[in-house]
Design a protein that fits this description.
With 260 residues, this protein is of the alpha/beta class. It is 50% helix and 16% strand. Bound molecules: octanoyl-coenzyme A. The site of octanoyl-coenzyme A has 25 residues, from helix 2, helix 3 and strand 6.
Length: 260
C-alpha cells in the first residue's frame, strides 16, 4: 500500500512512524488507520527494527483524534466494527516485540490519545495536551481508551477524564502518570532518539523478551504473568548475549551484544 498519510523511516534498527495530515491536526481517518496497519505488519516481520518511535508531523498536534467526519456517519452496526478494527490495529502495535515510544508533540486527543496509550512509553513536549473528549461528541472512546487509561492511571482518574472529556496539559499528564517526562518542545525529538539509543544499546534479545513479558503479562492475570516472565527468563539464559553481558560486567568492560 502506498503511504500517503504517514511517513515511515528506518535507520540503524530504529523505525519512526510520523502521522502526516497536519492540515487536520493528523486526525486518523480510515486510510490512515489502514496505513498504520500496513506499517505494523512490516514491523511484525522486520527483525532488524528493534525500537519504534511514533509522532505527529507539524508543530501543533500529535493526533487530534479519529476523523470526526467519519464518526458522524456511523450507526450501531458499523460503529462496533469501526471500533474493533481500530482496537485490533492498536493491539498489534502494543503487542510488538519491540518497544514503541510515543513522542507527543502537541494535541493527543481521542483516538490520538488512545494511540499514545497503546505505545509502551510516552514522552511529551511542553505544548502537548491530552484528553478523551469523546463524550462531548456523544460517543465514548473506542480504540482501547477506556481500558488502557484505567489500567495506566487508575479507574478514578480515568473516569474523571473520560466522563468530563476535559483536556489536560502536559504537566498535569505528568502529575497523573500519563506520561513519563515533559520536555521543552525543541528538545523532544532529540530526547526521544536518545532514549531509543539507550534501549538499542542494551541486550536486544533481553529487550524483546522484557517488552513481551510486560505487555502479555498485563493482558493476563498476575500468576500467568509471572509464568510468562519465568519462561522468558529461562529463554534469555540460553543466549550468547546473556553470557556476554554477565561476563562483561565481571570483567569490568562494556558488553558487545551479538543479538544471539
Ligand atoms: N477530526 C477531523 N478534523 C479535525 C479533527 C478531528 N478529530 N481535529 C481537528 N480537525 C480539523 C479541524 O476541523 C480544522 O479543519 P478546517 O481547517 O478544515 O476547519 C483543522 O483540523 C484545524 O483544527 P482547528 O481549526 O479546530 O484548530 P484549533 O487550534 O482551533 O483547535 C483542537 C484544536 C482543540 C484540537 C480542535 O481541533 C478540536 O477540538 N479537535 C477535535 C478533538 C476531538 O474531539 N477529538 C476526538 C475525536 S473522537 C475520537 O477520536 C474517537 C476515537 C475512537 C473511535 C472509535 C470508533 C468509533
Amino acid at each position: 500500500m502506498k503511504l500517503e498519510n504517514i511517513l515511515f523511516e528506518v535507520k540503524d534498527n530504529l523505525g519512526k512512524i510520523s502521522i502526516n495530515r497536519p492540515k487536520v491536526l493528523n486526525a486518523l481517518n480510515s486510510k490512515t488507520m489502514d496505513e498504520i496497519e500496513t506499517v505494523v505488519e512490516q514491523l511484525e516481520k522486520d527483525a532488524n527494527i528493534h525500537v519504534v518511535i511514533v509522532t505527529g508531523i507539524g508543530g501543533k498536534a500529535f493526533i487530534a483524534g479519529a476523523d470526526i467526519a467519519e464518526i458522524e456517519v456511523l450507526d450501531r452496526q458499523n460503529g462496533k466494527a469501526f471500533a474493533q478494527r481500530g482496537q485490533e490495529i492498536f493491539n498489534r502495535l502494543a503487542g510488538l516485540d519491540k518497544p514503541v515510544i510515543a513522542a507527543v508533540n502537541g494535541y493527543a486527543l481521542g483516538g490520538g490519545c488512545e494511540l499514545a496509550l497503546a505505545c509502551h512509553i510516552r514522552i511529551a513536549s511542553e505544548n502537548a495536551y491530552f484528553g478523551l473528549p469523546e463524550v462531548k461528541l456523544g460517543v465514548i472512546p473506542g480504540y482501547g481508551g477506556t481500558q488502557r487509561l484505567s489500567r495506566l492511571i487508575g479507574t478514578s482518574m480515568a473516569a474523571e477524564l473520560i466522563l468530563t472529556g476535559n483536556i489536560i496539559d502536559a504537566e498535569e499528564a505528568l502529575r497523573i502518570g500519563l506520561v513519563n517526562r515533559v520536555l521543552p518542545h525543541n528538545e523532544l525529538n532529540l530526547a526521544v532518539e536518545k532514549l531509543a539509543d539507550t534501549i538499542l544499546s542494551r541486550g536486544p534479545i533481553a529487550v524483546k523478551r522484557a517488552i513481551y513479558a510486560i505487555i502479555y503479562g498485563s493482558r493476563t492475570g498476575f500468576i500467568n504473568g509471572l509464568e510468562i516472565e519465568a519462561s522468558l527468563f529461562g529463554d534469555v539464559c540460553g543466549t550468547d548475549d546473556k553470557n556476554e553481558g554477565t561476563r562483561a560486567f565481571l570483567e569490568k568492560r562494556p558488553p558487545v551484544f551479538q543479538n544471539k
